[in-house]
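Predict the holo structure. Ligand: pyridoxal-5'-phosphate.
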Amino acid sequence: MQLAKRLEKIPPYLFAELDRKRDELVAKGVDIINMGVGDPDQPTPSHIVEAMHQAIDDPSTHNYPPYQGTISYRQAAAEWMERRFKVKGLDPNTEIVSSIGSKEAIHNTFLAFVEPGDYTLISDPGYPVYRTSTIFAGGEPYTMPLLAKNGFLPDLDAIPEEVAQKAKLFWINYPNNPTGGIATLEDFEKMVNFCKKYQILLCHDHAYSEMAYDGYKPPSVLEVPGAKDIAIEFHSLSKSYNMTGWRVGFVAGNPIGIKGLGQVKTNVDSGVFKAIQRAAMAGFQTTEAQLQAVMTVYGRRRNILVEGLKSLGWPIDVPKATLYVWAPVPPGYTSTEFVTFLLEKCGILVPPGNGYGAAGEGFFRMALTVPEEKMYQAIERMKEIGLRYQ
Ligand SMILES: *Cc1c(COP(=O)(O)O)cnc(C)c1O
């Protein structure tokens, strides 16, 4: 048997590698503090679980769902976009499609728009799927470095003219995984204008739209006037409502973008379980108090971790959003050397920054997905071996 050549071009999925390393050490009896993958450890809020109980008892949820999502789900998503972002008038029939979490929709968007030889503009560091799905589609990833000095935003002037002209998709993600960077409406407006100039579909991965702290509310790219002419936005309930296992989200925006994605999806999947769509609709009704109950837990962990790292000399800012702290490795280490050191000397598992792209070299990412006492323990272990940023 022979695997397809395209698989040779795909690097091992970052987190699959980390899981393997963790299992190896756990088998040796090492007590690992796993701050690797951004998978919430808290339960899904009870109003959503309750809606699921009711939905699954209703036999009308048991057969195949409509490919694009039930009309009530798409309407609920459109209403949520209006309530949350003041994005009015999204047509549930042509401008919204359900997704089995964002990952599949991201991948399928590449299949819908990228042909062999086309460029995709992807952020570096960035969610690994942007790169691998470009390769699956036969395209060429062109990476846009996200640098601290630019506020982790892409430098549009640095994109060569000939690349822009051959690019089909422009991928951004704010609040950003892994850097924690955020974008303002003015930042989005510049990207919308750039994409309009070159007729590139602007794809905003908004996985962390609700995961912000201290009163900050991340905007939608669709709030930029005219953005719907060129942009689609990927929403997921995974991170915001501790629902990574449920696999549900939606994509909203430009009708050609939605149509292309929908056409691929109709041929490769059969939609989201209707009971889960109903539970997600309860998710759209989450009150500010219920959301804050989730975010307060992450906010406290963030503070413990940032304070702890600062006490060891780390030069870092408090992230305004996401589930992550993005921190520089101490001078003298590469990313890979430092995360190996942390794992072997402290039993702390974190991904190296370069796992998210070459521009992530010199950084590591810590996920806020372990309880407070483990956070304290992680800092304590670093202190005990005399580790400092210097
Ligand atoms: C977690 C994540 C996703 C995927 O989430 P789903 O569970 O597939 O909805 C997409 N993009 C980014 C940036 C993420 O961090």
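The pocket of pyridoxal-5'-phosphate is lined by residues 38, 101-103, 127, 173, 177, 205, 207, 236, 238-239, 244, 249 (CB under 6 Å). The first strand starts at residue 33 and ends at 34.
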